[in-house]
Design a protein that fits this description.
The chain is mainly alpha-helical. It has one domain. About 65% of the residues lie in helices and about 0% in strands. The protein contains two helices and no strands. It is flat. The N and C termini lie far apart (about 40 Å). The relative contact order is 0.11. The model has no long low-confidence stretch (mean pLDDT about 90).
Length: about 80
Amino acid sequence: MSSAPGPWDEEQDPTATDLAEIEREMPLIEAEIALLDAEIATIDRPVTELDRRRIRRAQVRVLAELLRLREAAAIDGPEAA
């Protein structure tokens, strides 16, 4: 019998701290997904002006979320980063 942890081993479950970190980063994750969606939409067709705007808005949103997280880390200290 193996002593390696299984997929449902409680030691492998996310801690409350892990879940809080994921929740804190969720706006950035969503912004990155929106950017990826905008880029994927243009893979197999010519890029239109509307596509360019959508991609640019998504890029701005990602940058804004990165800035928000960086500012929060600066305010809360390095342990919050």
